[in-house]
Amino acid sequence: MKRMLPALLLLCAVMLSGCAHRELSKQERFLAASPRSILIVPVVNNSIDITASDYMLSTITIPLAERGYYVFPVHMVKRVLEDDGLADSSLVHSAPASRLCALFGADAVMYITIERWDARYMVFNTSVTLVLRYEIRDGKTDEVIWKNREYMVYNSDGGGGGGLAGLVAKAVTAAVTRAAPNYMPLARQASANSVSSYPGRGIPPGPYAIDKK
C-alpha cells in the first residue's frame, strides 16, 4: 500500500490539474459574465465596398434586442466614440472593452469584422458572398466571452428554363445582380443566425427576453 501511495497522489494531482485548466465553452463564459447590456461598436471593414460597414451595423441591433439585451443606439455610439478620439473602427477594436464600456455604462462590447462582402460575376451566374466575424468581450475583464463566424452565399442562378431563352434569362439576372447586388438579406440573416441559434453557436437569451429558449 505504501508503494502505491505516491502513484495515487500523482494521479490525483494530474486529474486536478486537468480540471483546473479545462477551457470553458463560449456559453459558459457568456453565462458567467452575465451581461445585461451590449455595446455594438463600428464595424471593421476588410472588403472593398466602403458602404459595407454602415449597412452591416444596421443589421445586428434588432436580433440582439430580440434575444433580450439592452442595445445602445449604434449611431449615437459612433458619434460619442468619434468625440472621444476613436473615429477609426480599427482603433475602436483595439481599445480595451473596459474603456469602451466605461464610456456608456455597458456590460459587454460586440465587435463585428467584415472579411468578405463581394459579388463575383460569371456570365450566367453572380455569386454574392459575405463572411462575417462576431465577437463579444466582457466589459470588466476584457475577456472574449463569445465569438462566431458566418459564411453566407447567394447565387443569382434561379433557373429560367432551358434553351437559348433560359440562358438569356440567366445572363440578364446575373448582370442585374452584379450591377446592384443586394447584400442586406444575407447580412440580416447572418446576424440573426449568429446570435439566435442557441443552443449551438448563438448566445443565451438575455434578462429581457420574452422567450427564454
Features:
6-stranded mixed β-sheet, 213 residues, single chain, alpha/beta, 9 helices, Rossmann fold
Characterise this structure.
With 213 residues, this protein is an alpha/beta fold. The protein has a domain at 24-117 and 130-152 and 183-196: 3-Layer(aba) Sandwich (Rossmann fold), CATH 3.40.50.10610. Helices cover 43% and strands 22% of the residues. It is built from nine helices and six strands, in the order ααββααβαααβββαα. Strands 1, 2, 3, 4, 5 and 6 form a six-stranded mixed sheet that branches. The model is unreliable at 5-10, 16-22 and 159-180 (pLDDT under 50).
The oligomeric state is single chain
Mean pLDDT: 80
- Choose one word for the global shape: globular
* Relevant CATH superfamily of the domain at 24-117 and 130-152 and 183-196: ABC-type transport auxiliary lipoprotein component
CATH class of the domain at 24-117 and 130-152 and 183-196: Alpha Beta
Percent in strands: 15-25%
H/E topology pattern: HHEEHHEHHHEEEHH
Biggest pleated-sheet summary:
6 strands, mixed
Low-pLDDT segments, ≥5 res: 5-10, 16-22, 159-180
